[in-house]
Amino acid sequence: MELLQTQNRHSIIVPQEEIVVGTNKAFIEANTLEVSLSHLKTDCTIPVFSKDNECTISHQEFIGTAYDCAKSIFSDYAVSMPEVRVSHIVKGRIPSAIGKPVKELKEHEKTIYYERMMFKIEIPDVYEMINGNLVKLTLGGVRAYNQENLYSKKTFEKFKFFIGFQNMVCCNMCVTSDGYVGEMRVGSLEDLKKQILEAIGSYQMQYHLESMKALTKHKLSERQFAQLIGRCRLYNYLPKKEKVEILPFLLNDGQINNVARAYYEDDSFCREDNGDITLWNFFNLLTSSNKSSYIDTFLDRSLNAHEITQALSNSLNNRTSVWYLN
């Protein structure tokens, strides 16, 4: 399998003094809460499809299936325990508590589940250094019940899965197109396992690493950066005829503002003294700003950040035109 043939833990050992150690930040922020697997298993109900009362695939089953796949494929490597974050709590109560005022509810009478969940699993022995930043191989997924029609009969369920790298200095997630499946449609855990294994097997890890390293070789001037930020803000207001011909930009205005602020203030990825900024730093400003996205949009915007930066890199490298820098 190409994933394991192109990498081994000995080929990328880095002297300790070269490793930049980041703070213990979350890989996604927004309104998320970190929870344990045991909490999902013991304290949370599982939604059903209301017309036939069939169970959905639970968050913990998704996580467990991905973890088993990782252990199977990376059998010669350490695999970290999943880190899980959730949002949009859905509250309920047991039948005997119907009609009780909220303030009189006892703990055992309350029920909860989380509408949205994201997790990541690190393969800590597979890592690389890019411009002084330690990046580790990471896989994970997203489940968002708001993208299911729970008022119908059981049908194919939707999941998102990714494998890529996490920049450990800032916990930014780096995702590329061949490492991301935006909609896995599955009918069972077996289907889910099969599609996760296929996604991991098709991931071109070495190509992803090389494309990120190449970002360090190109810089934007202060003028180019200012034009780029302006174009990003203009994108959402373009006429439809023009927009369809341009690579989409998915971050919102508030996130673009954060990128502009971080250009001056970020401790790790700000501009150089002359105003220039490498595409690697710009890419990390995008992925850092993306951490304020909701769980159900996070991975699509992560991929978009890579596509935008790669388009800029191709433009600078080949001296070709791209709308964001015209």
TrEMBL record:
<dbReference type="InterPro" id="IPR024353">
    <property type="entry name" value="DUF3871"/>
</dbReference>
<dbReference type="Pfam" id="PF12987">
    <property type="entry name" value="DUF3871"/>
</dbReference>
<protein>
    <submittedName>
        <fullName>DUF3871 family protein</fullName>
    </submittedName>
</protein>
